[in-house]
Amino acid sequence: MTKESMMTSMTTLTALSRRSILRGALLGGALAAFPFGLLPKGKAASLPDSFGVGRQQWLEHLLGKDLNTSDPSITSQLASIGSAARSAMNTYVTSASRTGLWSDLSLAARATNADSARVTTTARRLRSIALAWAAGALGPDADRGLATVADGLAWLSRDVFSTGGVRYGNWYDWDVSAPQALNDALVLTFGAIPASTRTALLDAERHFTPVIPQTGTTAAAANRVLFCDSFCGRGLLGENADELTAARDGLAPVLTYAQPYGGPVGLVDGNKDEAAFFSNDGFYPDGSFIQHGQFPYIGGYGASYLTSITAIAARTSGMSWCPDLGIVHGWIHSSFEPWLWRGLVMDTVRGRQLATVAGDQGTGLSFINGMLDLLPSASDAERSRLKSLIKAELPWRGTQPTAGLGLPETALALEILGDPTVVARSPLNGTWVFGPMDRVLHRRDDWAVAFAMNSLRMADYENGSNENLRGWYTSDAATFLYTGDLDQFDDAYWCTVNAYRIPGTTVDTVARDATATPWRAEYHNPSLMAGGLSAQTWGVATIDLTAKAPSTLHGRFSRFFFDDCYVCAGAGISVSSGRSAETIVENRRVTATSSGPLTIEGSVPLALGESKTVDNAGWAHIGGVAGYVMLGRPTVLALHEQRSGRLSDISGTITGTTASTVHTGDYVVLALQHGPRATDASYAYIVAPGLDAAATAQLAAKLSVRLLGNTPGVQAVRHEPAGRLGAAFYEAGTASVITVDAACVIAVEETDSSITVRASDPTQSLSRIRAELRIHADTVIESDPRVSWAPGADSCTLTFDVSGLTGSTVSARLAWQPPSAADLAAALGRLIGRDIPGSVGAQLQKTAGHFIGVFNSGDFAAARTELHTFQTTLDDWVSTQARPTAGVLALVDLASRLVTRTLNNRS
């Protein structure tokens, strides 16, 4: 069919008003007079089950209703929609011998995933033209647009997407993505194209997907919702109540929490036991979301889940076919919101989508779009909370915050942004532990850290469909710092960054292959020790890691998250003979925000192309990012390099100029060098986001944190001013005043009146944790029901029931008498002449006396100075001792614990 004949055949149809065509055709007969708009969406079923009403609500979900076309944001969206449609129309192929509807989307090859992906892309282009036509965005090109859609849909229904069609490549294209796009195109042009085309395409959908799957990955979590989305659409278009009922009932298993089979998925052969493998998929009470059995995926499949579930609800609102989204509103705040950072979604929960065109900001936009679509089904209280969240996130999207949203979502967003009664939600602060999916997140007002792990529960990384081919180390203790630099991990970061140097990781520098792993055969770190502890606004995370072959690396790594900084520690680092290991402190792309001057202890900034190795490095600084203080003065490699790459380097599914375009990026790198044949290497460093170089130097000179342990058995850090101690135990052991009987994570927080102890089981395999505290505690102020307390004369024992908690935290707060200044002098007196020589002891006694005097006088500033002098003198002497005694180490710890009392200004 030529363009001229297409135009002639469609003239009579397109001469009518689009709105009158759509409204009359969608509703049919007497229903055209139904007063839509009178029933708030999301209410209990009170409309008759009507296909026409559903189609009208669907249309409003896509196009909006009563849009203010004088608003520049609306006109901009319409112009963008029209421009995309015209671009597609101008390259549309009409020749009789065509093998596809666009020259770059030939459908002649019919075998691979890339081949089936072109079917989806073809359907989506037709949808984009249909959307522009129905929205009135094509102006004088409207007739040509409608004719193009009619011709394209008819061609597909006669050839590749037909009842005689044979599926090839990826099931997702035939069952989900192509049907979704085709259904939208059909409702957008309902009544304006021949009914026979619609019937043929719906018959083809039933041919390819006769039922909603009940087992395997296609039946799990977001995939099930996507199937239900397609069934809902074809049920309304084909007026099939059974399909609509199937769509609603099919959602029941995914509108609840996941029910895992009861063991680590790494022990399950997913090809032999699909039920157990995919039982992990879905949402969890702690906010975790898993897809494909073994991957954190709220930023990928979770976004698809949200898009489709809200679309189903919008189409069927007020009718018996509408699902109850009450539980979804809860998931917004437990699962989606924490990972939404200033309008983007953190990469560590985006799976293999790191290697796609859609970046972290694109995923953030889909989150916000879904939240806007949830507003009609929300209670008054939840609607208010959602609006507050949306108003906090949208402004970070720049001068056109609504760009890219759908038309109705744009209208809602503009209303929220312009409503002075809607107050933007304050920045989230706290530490979240997502136990089932091996992720820990720490957020402050101006920065956040995402910590990614893998274990027998979660695989290392997903590269299915030949995507994310260099994701080798993205969950090997990867530590991603998010700041005001919203472009850092977007805009070709993942195809230009050195994939061997992911921030936070310790790697064996052996070469890796950029090849896809068979589905369900991904690598699992054999340890269960991967998780953390949340102490509300601070926390701890840890992993016992054996890296994937050919790497021979093993190590134990912890992160300690505080209000003003975080501490990274590693111990027991080993690689085989002939191999080298290094720890990547930072690998930062230079952007307009992260200006990137990299200095080591105030040295001249590294020039592009320069690298140097610095021995005994104390601190470093990266402009616009953070200050870095190295504990133990290690050897540091610093470099400033320019790197290039293509998306095709990390994805085999992206084609054309998008895949072949060369991207470049400048990077500054800090890496600790452990040298060849490391057998028991360790490291520790502080990251202070937002600190300038001068303040970093001051922090290095007077540390606010103390490393109490960094061995293969225990890693422990105290933030002295805050009186907070975090400890990761890899076996039974002791740190400061606490001794535990099993591998676990402990947090202790001391104040003048109470001591709070928290515990978690990162292995998710224990029934209880027993912790002895060498303190005198008077009473239990408050505790979780799972904690029991046994007091003693000079110690007490807490037993934490952690069975079935999937790594969540339990806590107890006890009343006590904290250590006093006099306790320091008494402890010192017992050690002089026995564990501490007299000359050193005399100097320490003098300083301790000064400390007691000014502390008791209430001069806390002077007390802080004297205590710092005491600590420095003691530390200097201890550093000369090969094996300090237990008593000396207890004295060091006691002095550390007293710091917070000088800051509390209480005697």
UniProtKB/TrEMBL annotation:
Active site (catalytic residues): 292, 301, 352
Keyword Signal: yes
InterPro entries linked: Chondroitin_lyas, Gal_mutarotase_sf_dom, GH-type_carb-bd, Lyase_8, Lyase_8-like_C, Lyase_8_alpha_N, Lyase_8_C, Lyase_8_central_dom
Taxonomy, superkingdom: Bacteria
Annotated SUPFAM superfamilies: Chondroitin AC/alginate lyase, Galactose mutarotase-like, Hyaluronate lyase-like, C-terminal domain
Pfam families given in the database record: Lyase_8, Lyase_8_C, Lyase_8_N
Residue ranges occupied by any Polysaccharide lyase 8 N-terminal alpha-helical domain in the UniProt entry: 58-259, 279-392
A GO term for molecular function: carbon-oxygen lyase activity, acting on polysaccharides
GO biological process: carbohydrate metabolic process
Record keywords: Lyase, Signal
Residue stretches making up the Polysaccharide lyase family 8 C-terminal domain: 707-769
All copies of domain Polysaccharide lyase family 8 central, residue ranges: 433-691
CDD domains named in the record: GAG_Lyase
Gene Ontology terms: cellular component: extracellular region
Assigned protein family: Belongs to the polysaccharide lyase 8 family.
Designated name of the protein: Hyaluronate lyase
Naturally occurring in which organism (per UniProt): Arthrobacter terricola
